[in-house]
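Protein modeling request. Please complete all fields; requests missing the sequence field cannot be processed.
Requester role: graduate student
Desired output: 3D structure, token encoding
Chains: 1
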Amino acid sequence: MKRLYYLTDDLDCVERISSALHKEGVSDWNFHVISKNQAGLYRRHIHSANFIQKSDAVRYAERGAMVGFIFSILGSVYVASEQPFGPDMGGMVYLAIFGFVTLFGVWVGGLMGMATENQKIAAYHGEIEAGKHLILIDAKAEEEERVRELMARTHPDAYLLRVGSTLINPFKFAHPAV
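Delivered output (178 residues):
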């Protein structure tokens, strides 16, 4: 899926965009708003972005899983070569090492990511803090052009900032807004 990032100054505009997109069949699952005015979004029944979308928890958890997996391999090699539990150790010990160390990496990575703003949204942090509203619209590739045309035709005051993907790449590092 594609994610379209729009920025607007006015909460009334956000409400009109929400209504127009709902009429076009875009559900709340595919429409999210990041705003400093959370109470205004709530009062107008506008779907706010959730914590997972605002933080980098998923990307960091994926990184933690990879680091944990590498350390679990190293731990298993150590246990196999040094045999600290004796020579009659079963395969369940290796499975436990893999599971525990990899999941520990996911947990630590997720905790680190919860303390970090989503890298795709961080570029617009200043605008959000200044009172603007960031609108995230998820559309299938074949629907992207229809959504863009609708937005350009009916809401020219909402600026298209970028088009990205809803997939999270753990290897991608922050970059300036495009």
